[in-house]
Amino acid sequence: MEIPPQFHIAQTPGWLVNHRINSALPGYLMVSSRNFTNDLSDLSPEALAELGPLLAKAQKVLGGRLGAKRVYIGRYGHTPGLPVHFHIIPVYDWVEALFWRDERYRLLQTFAEGPGETPTDGAELTFFIWREFCERADPPAIEGPPVAQTIELLREAMRN
User: Does the pTM of the predicted model rise above 0.85?
Assistant: First the structure.
């Protein structure tokens, strides 16, 4: 799958960082191998050495420049024909507030350890973000810069 250039943020010899094409959530990134394999063990030592610092930099930028409260990083799926890739998902305060207002997730609040605590379940929150910001034709309103402006901010930040 060819990623349109307007979504490109950064690249190294082994990896491409892009904004997720179908995400309305500003800062939802994908880090994809430039080597066409779906197995990390097939990658060169150089590509593997680039991966950790690249993921760390993306996390730092999403937290520091965009104010993400948390950053989830994961490898999901095994779709034939796609290179190995990682999802980097920013979790902003306003996204978490939307999550807790959604009646489908209110039951999770009953598992809080103490009064007033609202433990965030990472798997449920990831599913919420996918459903609300990637799959819905009419995603929720965002707070902060829109995706196109966020891409420009991230390009600049990832260069430094």
Answer: yes
